[in-house]
Amino acid sequence: MPSLEYYIILSAILFSVGVWGVLKSRNAIVAFMAIEIMLNAVNLSLISFSSNIKLIISGLIQALPADQVPALLRSSSAYGQIFVLLVMTVAAAEAAVGLAIIISIYRAKGSVNLDDVNIMKW
Amino acid sequence: MGFNWILISPEIAVLATGFILLILDLFIGKSRGFLLTAVSFIGIMVALWLNYQNYSIMGVGFQGIVINDPIGFYFKIIFCMGTLLTVFISSTYVSREMKGMGEYYVLIFIATFGMMVMASSADLITIFLGLEVMSIPLYVLAGIHRGRLRGREAAMKYFLLGAFASGFLLYGIALIFGAYGSTNLVEISQRFLFSSGFSGILTGAGMVFLLVGFGFKIAAAPFHMWVPDVYEGATAPVTAFMSAGPKAAAFAVLFRLFSVFQPVISDNFTTILWILAVITMLWGNLLALSQKNIKRMLAYSSIAHAGYVLIALTVGGRDGISAGLFYLLIYTIVNIGAFSIIIFFSGKNEKYENISDYAGFGYKYPFAAIAMTVFMLALAGFPATAGFAGKYKIFVAAINSGFIWLAIIGIFNSLVSVWYYIGVVVSMYMKQPRDESPTVILSMTLMVAVLVAFIGTVYLGLFPDDWIALSDWAGSHYSWASIVGSLVR
After folding, report:
1. With a cut of 0.85, is the ipTM above it?
2. Residue B38 counted as domain residue
């Protein structure tokens, strides 16, 4: 298995791609897809941190008695894994509301281009 | 292993009220407006009462993810006040402009539930979930008026930038998880001693990302781009709601985070916050000077007010937190008061939103104009109004902690702000009225809201001692993560 750094670097690159996509795209749907890439970059780093939990809390492991270590490892790595599930849930809820809003703009204007959303200046 | 439901009883009351309203809306016919308002009022009162009962049972619950401490206690009062006033100012507006949509109140209550969860959570996961529970109803609320095209635009801008900000926030949380292997803030604060070599960098980067994410929510410059458009596009009661509670909720989390991570983040963060506060105040005040639309003007003014609270965040510690809490309470009351008068003045379909439209209103609607004058003076920070007490406390806290220049820039900024707040008063009293004038619609509930906000503004300006004592008490628990054990009485 590649070491932790590769996953973190990949996740940072994915996150930057997402940010760049949001800032650059002129289409609301594409901007929203870029936001989803950002969220998935976060998921990737959460999962990779959580599978390398031993490395992260190595200092704490040395300080604790040996019989408490397995429980600590389990609970610490569970934080990251559960958080990923919650992030996916929230992303789905956000998509439901966001796409509805984008559809309502499309009905009003016949376009989802962000340059057309200009009654008020940005 | 107790779940300790009693600690989150105010949250449960608010959420239950939301669900009751959702079901009730299906079964009632004509008298919806009154019934929905009455149920909302009772729900908020129950939540306030339960919060008051929780005064004596501080502590943590749900395996440490929920905390009921003085800071959370105080913020829950702020949110309940904001929601109470919002319900009153929306009541007739919703039945008039939107044919009495029941889901309006439901969304308000779910958003309030999210804010309360944010203020009372001791875990980054719960903070994130609270933030989303607050934000998603707000995206819908921004565009809830279907006949208002500007509202749809506002919803879209708010949604895209809000989701963008939550991405940053999540990345910050992931980095902090990577530094300490936990998302629980109390656990994290106990692991500082055993941190590994790279956790310093990860924490610093994570806090920067968290600051960007919450910077969007509190409307700090340079993350404020959405604020003027969303405040102008959304209907006035929604704008009033958005400008008060969500901002306070994001500040609640920032106060908590910075007091936990104080030992491990470098002093550069004080400089970052310092610069952020100055830019936010300057940008908000200077752009507010040139606004014609009153909602847009109040949007820039809300950016400036976020800057004043950022001073309190920069100061930090006991003084900073108590000044910030007190300021947010005052800002909630005064700002919703100002918006209630805007709802009154702007007439049907919010046709009259420009400051120049209010010419001559000082003689036509004397009582409303007096109330508006007091709210504007309070926002500007005139003595004998609540705004003065709040600003005084923040600047004194800044000076006592050695941030002399920050206090001077803040005072200079509030002098600048007098110009555009007085502009509204000048327009009401000293300009020639126009021929066509809006048909304003007065209602009991709106009058109650104005009256409550007016009395609150004057009372907190003249006799702020009780509330200052309460916020000092909350501020003295600034190191909340290390005293969790001693909270349980």
Report:
1. yes
2. yes
Domain assignment present for B489: no
Dihedral, CA of residue B297, residue B302, residue B307 and residue B308, to nearest 10: 110
What domain range is B100 assigned to?
A: 5-481
Q: Per the structure block, which two tokens stand in for B426?
A: 């000048």
Q: What percent of chain B has pLDDT over 70?
A: 96
Mean pLDDT in residue range B355-379: 89
List, as ranges, residues 213-272 from B with C-beta within 8 Å of A: 225, 228-229, 232-233
Q: pLDDT tens digits, residue range B258-303?
A: 999 988 887 888 999 999 999 999 999 999 999 999 999 999 999 9
Domains observed in chain A:
4-116 (1.10.287.3510)
Q: Which residues of A touch B134 (CB under 8 A)?
A: none
Chain B positions in Cβ-Cβ contact with residue A81 (cut-off 8 Å): none
Say whether B353 sits in a helix, a strand or coil: coil
Question: Has residue B488 been placed in a domain?
Answer: no
CB B280 within 8 A of CB B308: no
Residues in Cβ contact with B369 at an 8 Å cutoff, skipping those fewer than 6 apart:
B361, B362, B363, B428, B429
Note whether residue B75 is domain-resident: yes
* Secondary structure in 3-state letters for B405-427: HHHHHHHHHHHHHHHHHHHHHHH
Q: What is the pLDDT of residues B382-433, one digit of tens each?
A: 988 999 999 999 999 999 999 999 999 999 999 999 999 999 999 889 888 7
Q: Among A23-32, B94-103, B250-259, whose mean pLDDT is lowest?
A: B94-103
Window 18-47 of A: residues touching B by CB (8 A cutoff) are 18-19, 22, 28, 31-32, 35, 38-39, 41-42, 45-46
Nearest to A101 among B155, B174, B199 (CB): B155
Closest CA to B202 of A60, A99, A11: A11
pLDDT single digits (tens) B374-389: 999 999 999 889 999 9
The total number of structural domains that make up chain B: 1
Place of tokens 């439209």: B357
Give chain A's mean pLDDT.
90
Cα angle for residues B135, B256, B217 (degrees, 5° grid):
25
Cβ atoms of B86 and B34 closer than 8 Å = no
Residue found by looking up tokens 């040395």 in the block:
A62
